[in-house]
Model the fold of this input.
Amino acid sequence: VHSVIDNSVTKFLVDLLRNASTKPSAFQRITNELSYILAYEVSKNAATKKKLIETWQGTYEATSLPQDDVAIIPILRAGLGMLGGVQKLLPGAQVHVLGMYRDEETLNPVWYYNKIPQENTIRKAYVIDPMLATGGSMVSTISALKEKGCKDIVALSIIGAPEGLKAVEEAHPDVHVYLSSLDDRLNEKGYIIPGLGDAGDRIFNT
Ligand code: PRP
Ligand code: URA
Done:
């Protein structure tokens, strides 16, 4: 299952990221804005609870948004660029960071940091990574979350390639993938075309 945000503002913002002259400070701000919009789209289905509050005209049954058992999972490095935007919507969520990089030859993810809690305290996980290229990093992250008992997982990426989307949908058909843009293809080095280049380098000015 996947959704591509169909919105003129989103298209405008993604194309600002594609522009090679967009500097890291603007790139970071726009990435956070797009991440907020993605999380907002996911939150349409967020679980709510009712609680009684006192208002100016008496008791009222208000909507509350439980977040203690929601987790945001940024994949290092580039996933950190989305964290602020998602946290703006879910300030009470847990954050668990995972580290992996793509082997340049095989394009397979290589893990170097895993902070998923041993005891599952996560009812819903938002995995965030701006680029869904081959899908290897996302598939591996979702598998690791499931191994720890997490059942409700959504994946948020700014730009996805058809190849990566297919890989996630085949490996994890229960996971809903949210994209700001679904691009054309991967090139021979596993980069998304047209894409935006290397997201980590663009965010962190490396
Ligand atoms: C990039 C990106 C994703 C991954 C996507 O990370 O941030 O994590 O590639 O590729 P995949 O879908 O083929 O797995 P990279 O390895 O460049 O590391 P970085 O975020 O530290 O720059
Ligand atoms: N990672 C990136 O940062 N960009 C791509 O196009 C593919 C993987």
Summary: The chain has a mean pLDDT of 96. Residues 75-78, 101-102, 107, 109, 129-138, 164, 190, 198-200 surround PRP (ligand 1) (CB under 6 Å).
